[in-house]
Specification:
- InterPro entries: SAM-dependent_MTases_sf, UbiG_MeTrfase.
- There is one protein chain.
- This protein is an alpha/beta fold.
- The protein has helices spanning about 10-15, 20-30, 40-55, 75-80, 95-105, 115-125, 145-155, 170-180, 200-210, and strands at about 5-10, 65-70, 85-90, 110-115, 130-135, 155-165, 210-220, 225-230, 235-245.
- It has a nine-stranded mixed β-sheet.
- Strand 7 and strand 8 (about 225-230) form a beta hairpin.
- Helix 3 (about 40-55) packs across helix 4 (about 75-80).
- The radius of gyration is 17 Å and the shape is globular.
């Protein structure tokens, strides 16, 4: 197997649309990314749901895919296992090193690169059949800029997928108080409520970027059964599928 080595594009890392504290937060936990019982347990548990949702709307096999904000590579690897040609980008050296090492260990070929979404969009505009940006928009200063970059990365007719957290009292109760303090599913301080994004705000950013909304789904967690499910309740976590016009 020929594995493409981790790359770093100097011009691509100098982006104003990054919160250094957010990068530091996830970098400190990077070595635990692939431990299914670690702070990243929720990501491991929701991944099969989001993977099937993406694959049902845009079959992955043989497609050129980019995962924006790939972190340690949980979604990127699962898409590569579906025979997609996957690129993962992020700005955390530690997370990318973990992702790269894990793909080498599992023998899965993925191109990982340290580069900002906006810089990647300038360099490889209109290149990808599928663009994913999951659990990232609520961690950047300017989510609209990321949405626009994802649009640029997609080919005409390509599909773009986002997931994030709604901003309302229920979302604060469940995603911050419940997940971080009561159930302790996530480290305290993982989320900043002020950065949460309502479906209306994200839909406006999507339309402004020139994308069309295809589908919006909610994702819920039942603390009794400890099972996640996709449904129509977008009051806390939600996912949006978009299409780039031909």
């Amino acid at each position: 197997m020929s594995h493409i080595e981790l790359q770093s594009t100097a011009s691509g890392t100098n982006s104003s649309n990054v919160d250094p504290s957010e990068i530091q937060k996830f970098s400190e936990l990077a070595h635990r990314w692939w431990d299914p019982n670690s702070e990243f347990k929720p990501l491991h548990e929701i991944n099969p749901l989001r993977l099937e949702w993406i694959n049902n709307l845009a079959p992955l096999a043989g497609k050129k895919v980019i995962d924006v904000g790939c972190g340690g590579g949980i979604l990127a690897e699962s898409m590569a296992k579906r025979k997609a040609h996957v690129t993962g980008i992020d700005l955390s050296d530690k997370a990318l090193n973990v992702a790269d090492l894990h793909s080498l260990e599992t023998g899965i070929e993925i191109r990982y690169e340290k580069i900002a979404a906006e810089a990647m969009a300038e360099r490889e505009a209109g290149t990808f059949d599928i663009v994913t940006c999951m659990e990232m928009l609520e961690h950047v200063p300017d989510p609209a800029s990321i949405v626009k970059a994802c649009m640029k990365l997609a080919k005409p007719g390509g599909k773009v997928f986002f997931s994030t957290i709604n901003r309302n009292p229920k979302a604060y109760l469940f995603a911050v108080i419940g997940a971080e303090y009561v159930l302790q599913m996530l480290p305290k301080g993982t989320h900043d409520y002020q950065k949460f994004i309502t479906p209306a705000e994200l839909s406006q950013d999507i339309r402004n970027a020139g994308l069309e909304v295809l589908q919006m789904k909610g994702m819920s967690y039942n603390p009794l059964t400890k099972i996640y499910s996709l449904n129509q309740d977008t009051s806390v976590n939600y996912l949006v599928a978009c299409s780039k016009p031909l």
